[in-house]
């Protein structure tokens, strides 16, 4: 992709949650990396504490791509870009029945009612497959410093071989 996009800078994305992943992206020519889920597990993240804990306890195999939560929430997100999330009651209820959910006359109201009642989290627990690499809740500043140090170490080590 870097070669095809040149001279436009390319950011790597997907599965990057530590400095080794960042170093790999840089070694392949990316100008930087989009680090998503890892920043949801920081002290400043704008996620509910139960979502942060779910990320810490979750595993890559606990995530799935689906449109269910976008449909239930009435999101205008383009349908071809599915969201990867951790488990959610609405996924269990509507998995594989997206067309039925979209046509359901009260689905959005039911979803909002469940959020208001505290039965489900206000936002889907978005999380990628790199979740296996997330084991703590540092500050964002600490995370950036750690990512940079790990990437520098990995790049230096790779340069010696």
UniProtKB/TrEMBL annotation:
The lineage of its organism: Bacteria, Bacillati, Actinomycetota, Actinomycetes, Kitasatosporales. InterPro entries: Aldolase_TIM. Transmembrane segments: none annotated. It comes from Streptomyces rhizosphaericus. It comes from the Bacteria. This is Nitronate monooxygenase domain-containing protein.
């Amino acid at each position: 992709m870097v070669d095809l996009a040149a001279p436009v800078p390319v950011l790597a994305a997907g599965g990057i949650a530590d400095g080794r992943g960042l170093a790999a992206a840089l070694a392949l020519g990316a100008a930087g990396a989009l680090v998503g889920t890892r920043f949801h597990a920081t002290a400043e993240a704008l996620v509910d504490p139960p979502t942060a804990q779910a990320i810490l306890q979750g595993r890559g195999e606990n995530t799935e791509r689906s449109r269910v939560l976008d449909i239930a929430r009435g999101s205008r997100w383009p349908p071809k870009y599915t969201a990867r999330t951790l488990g959610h009651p609405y996924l269990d209820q509507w998995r594989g029945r997206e067309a039925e959910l979209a046509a359901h006359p009260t689905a959005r109201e039911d979803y909002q009612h469940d959020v208001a009642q505290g039965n489900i989290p206000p936002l889907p627990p978005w999380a990628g497959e790199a979740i296996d690499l997330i084991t703590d809740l540092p500050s964002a500043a600490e995370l950036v410093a750690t990512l940079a140090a790990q990437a520098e170490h990995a790049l230096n080590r790779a340069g010696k071989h």
